[in-house]
Every structure is written in C-alpha cells, then in structure tokens.
Amino acid sequence: MPETPNQAPAVHVADLRKTFSVPVREAGLAAAARSLVRRESREIKAVDGVGFDIEHGEVIGFLGPNGAGKTTTLKMLSGLLYPTSGEALVLGYVPSRRERPFLRQITMVMGNRNQLQWDLPALDSFELIRAIYRLDAVDFRKTRDEFVELLDLGQLVNKPVRNLSLGERMKMEFVAALLHKPIVLFLDEPTLGLDVTMQKRIRTFVAEYNRRYGATVLLTSHYMADVQALCKRVVVIHHGRMLFDGALTELAARFNATKTIGVMLKDGTADLSAYGEVLESDDGRVLLRVARADAPDVATRLLRDLPVADLTIEDPPIDDVIESVFATAKPSDDDADDANSGSTEAAATAR
Amino acid sequence: MTSVATPLPAPAPRRGPIEWLRGWFDIYTTTMRIAVAEQFQYRVANYFYMIGMVAEPVIYLVVWSTVAVQQGGEVGGYTPGGFAAYYIVWTLVRNMNIALTPYAWEERIKQGDLSSFLLKPMHLIHFDLAFMAGWKVVVIVLWLPLAAFLSLLFHPTFNASLESVVVFFIAIWGAYLIRSLELWSLGMVTFWTTRVGPVFDIFFTAELLLSGRLVPLTLMPDWAQQLANYLPFKWTFSFPIESLIGGLPTSELVGGLFMQLFWIVAWTVVVLIGWRFAVKRFTAVGG
Questions:
Q1: Any chain B CB within 8 A of the CB of A77?
Q2: How far is A135 from chain B (nearest CA, A)?
Q3: Given an 8 Å threshold on Cβ–Cβ distance, is A87 in contact with B1?
Q4: Per-residue pLDDT tens digits for B70-117
Q5: Residues of chain B neighbouring A185 (CB-CB closer than 8 A)
Q6: Hey, are the CB atoms on A119 and B38 less than 8 Å from each other?
Q7: Binary contact (B26, A180; C-beta < 8 A)
Q8: A123 inside 8 A of chain B by CB
C-alpha cells in the first residue's frame, strides 16, 4: 500500500453538484422551425449535493438506477467533468485541474468505452501506455505479465483487439487501465454485457488488485453480484441525491422492512397464509414474507404449530432490496426534471 | 474548491533533461510505430488511397500542360516539365499535409472517445502529431514508386540544388506541423458548436485557392499572391513545392523557413490557450 502522509481520505466529496443545460423542443416540423429563431434549454441537476469520504484501500459500491448521477459523479472525480459547485478531492488533488501527478495515480474503466487500438494486438497498446506513463521497461513487463496471468489472457494479447470477444476485450481494457498501477480506480459498469463466468473473473481480478496494491475502488454496477463480492460499503444515489451511505448489510435493514421465512414441512404442503404473505409454494417448501419485527414471533409460531422439517429466516435478495430502495425514493417536484438525467447524460455525450 | 490535504506522492517519472527528452522520444517513436503497424493492416486500402490521391494532381497537370503548350510552351513561368515537377512534388506535399481533420473531432466528441485520452497524463496533441507522423512514413514509402511512374510519364524538369533539397526536407515537416496545429485549432471549435462542417468548408476553400494546391500561386492575380503571403496556407503547400523544384534564391528559402516557424509558434499558442478552454467546455457538456 502506498504511503499516506496524512490521514486525509483517498476521496473526499462534499455538496458536489453538476447541472447540465440541455436544449429542448417539441417534436414536429413546426417546433423545428421555431427552434431556428428561439432555442429553449432546461437545467438538469444530474448530481445534486452528493457528499461522502472514501478511505485508502476501501472498495465502495456506488449504486443507483440509470440516470441517477453515478457516471456523472465518477467523471467529476476523475477530472473528465467540471463540477458546477461543491468540493471534490482525490488523493488531495482537485480532479478538474487534471494535474499530471493526479492523472498518473488514477484510472477509470468504462464498460462501454475502448482505449485499445482496434486493429492491433493489445500488446501494442500496452507499449503505448508504457511510453505515455513513462514506466520503467522492466517494471512494466513484470506488471503486464502479472496481469496477463491473473486474467488468464495467454496468447490473446497477440490477437488484434477487433477479433477478441467482449469479455476478452474487457479483460484487456483492465490490463491497459492498470499497467501504471493506479491507486484510485473508478470502475463504471466494468462487467456490462459480460457473461457470468467473465463477470466473476473480473471481480476476482479487481479484488486481487485491491489486495495487492491497496487501491481505493469506486465501483458502479447494475449487477449486485459484483457489489456483494467486492464491496462492504455502498453509497446509493437516486435523482442525483444520496439515499444511503453505509454497510451493504445495513441496506436491507434500512430499506426493507421484511424478512423471508422458508419452511419445509414433514408431511407436505399446507396453507400458511395465516402466518404471512406466501411468496412461493413448491415441493413442500413454502416461502413467506413477514414484517422484519415479526419474524422471530412468526418463526416460533410455525415451529410450535406445524411439523417443521426445516426453517430458515433470511433477508430478501439484495436485488429486491435495491429495487425497494429506488421504489421508495419518490422524486420531488424538483426532481421531476432529474428523472431524465440519464438521457441527458447520453445527449451531452453525443453533442 | 480548495485543497485540504497534501497530495500523495505520484509515481516518480524519469528525472533530468536527458531522461525527459528520452521520455518524449519514446512516446513519439512508440506512437509512430503503432501508426505504421496499423497502416500495414490495410495494405490494399493504402494503395487505392494513394492512387486516388494521385488523380487530383494528374488532372491539374494535364490541364495546365495543355494550356502551357497552347500558350507557346509556358504559362506563369511554368513549362509542361515545370508543371510536371510541381504536381509530382505536390503529391508528396499533399500527403505530408494530411492531418486530423475537424470532422474527426466531431466524431471524437460525439462518440465520447476523448475520455480515455483526457485521462492520460499527456496533452492529446502529442498523440495526434506522432500518430499522423508515423502514417507519413508509410505514405512516403508508397509514394516513391508512384512518383517514379509519374516522372516516366510526364518528364518533370527540376532545378534543385543541395541547398533546396535540404530546405525541402525541413519544409515538408514544417508544413505538416503548421497544418496539424491549424486543423487542431479549427477542430476545437467542435467543443462549442456541434455541426461545424460549413465553417470548415469555407476554410478549406480558402486554403485550396491560396495555398498553391489548385494552381501554382504565380498563376493567381497579384492581390491573391500578396494576400497569400500573410496567410498560413502558402507555407504549407506552395513553399515546400517551390523550394524543391528550384528557382527560389537562398533568401527566399530561409525566409520561407522563418515564416513556417512563425506559423508553428502562432498555432501552438492558439492550441495551448484554446485547449484550456475547450477541455473545460468539453467537461462542462459531458462525454
């Protein structure tokens, strides 16, 4: 792990805001003609007062639905976007100044972006990265070979990038993004579109990189398996605002007021609707949803009243918890505009 | 926003001026190698590109040679052999002048491709300059047999000295630098306006007429020749060509190189200042 001259967090964000001005017009020829003389635009709050700290070596899951402001926040922290207001510090640097020592210590992997030379083997792109970051040739080869082995890339590094599968290309992207051994990683949907095996491989690699180099990681992903595997702490954002910042295990307790009780009866199925909401009943196993506070009591009653062969009490799946978090966070009037911030980001990208 | 913490130490880059220069040399040569390797992926396309590139000057050459013959063997100081020399050198200079177009900037911004470049601890101009320079190496190799073929066909007359050959080899790289920086500056307009095609078209039309690309400048009216002296176009096209085909006195050769230096410095200032605002503007709109 790199030396830390003070106890400042690796990432410090306070009241960070980003507002986009987006041109708007109605559909149709008449509206198009009107827009020739009078253009209208609308302010969209993509990020609206976000704040959190990340300690060195922490791996944080940054969660939110499409258009929540996750990517915008990551782009502000990596120096790609200029904040409208607020404070952002990464390793003590103001990202928007894009100072070279700062850029040397961070990386950003975007699941839908490619930094490799399309027509050439990835090895050529790795060489270019070595030159740009002015890496020592011996260290570079050692790091490259280490990552190639960790990701089981083998001879694929000699194949033109255009001939690689999506998963293979993503693994190459990771090697390219980490060759300079950054200590802060911004990972924006890095497993997007990958199959389950490839997702797991990427997760293992990120975990191993974090372990070996003590890197701080801020990860966005719609795959909760990524978050569960890598992040003890999550920050949830919706409509540009923070909803939650804490341990993943606390998320269910905070936002989901239910528990799931699984019951296996010795003599087949029975009607258990008197104990809770029956979610599923199959082959003698019944799943009940009950209020979190009532779970111990319901379990006691089940054990007392029925010939129970097996009984489990679980939190609902994390995907369901996240869904309920987003469902309970109703947008205010002010946020009505923000609901489009996802498409706003896309439109801004394609300007 | 103010800093509240001491920045952590960055991985130490190489120290000292020699190491610093070596680092830049490494960046440029590595990028050029990649450009060459990428061009070699498309050998057939390259040859067809070169053949297409030759079509334009051959048309000019045939037209002006015919005019010269009909005018008694010379027009604007050029004989058919002089025109042949002009337009054969033209093919090389034109290829040396090719740089990243402003249209490519539109694509870069639309596709969000700039993001990965902006995360690198290096100004993007270096990558573009080095990459296109590597591309030139391939172009020059492909140009040699075409130039030989055109020479056999049109019998050019050169009046080159060692001095003019040396100036030519400096001037074609000077022209490349001027035009690259010029188009970079123009390309940055896309940070402010999405559709800038018509603006570029006006620029390229002016360049076509006042650079010597369409016809040698001596065939243009006096006012156009005077105007061309104060614009960058001539120094990227007409000057390198005329420096090789001969006839320019030493004072004009040296003066031309100084004019190139002037425009390199001027466009560099525009690029450096413009980029600071453009990046902020880019980051202000996304991507």
A1: no
A2: 8
A3: yes
A4: 888 888 888 889 999 999 999 999 989 989 887 888 778 777 778 888
A5: none
A6: yes
A7: no
A8: no
Query: In this complex, how many residue pairs, one in chain A and one in chain B, have their CB atoms less than 8 Å apart?
Result: 148
Of B109, B110, B120, the CB nearest to A103: B120
Q: In terms of pTM, does the model score above 0.90?
A: no
Nearest C-alpha in B relative to A86: B1
What are A176-213's pLDDT values in tens digits? 999 999 999 999 999 888 888 888 999 999 999 999 99
Q: How far is residue B152's CA from residue A52's CA, in Å, rounded to a whole number?
A: 73
Domains and CATH numbers, chain A: 11-252+323-349 (3.40.50.300), 257-314 (3.30.70.980)
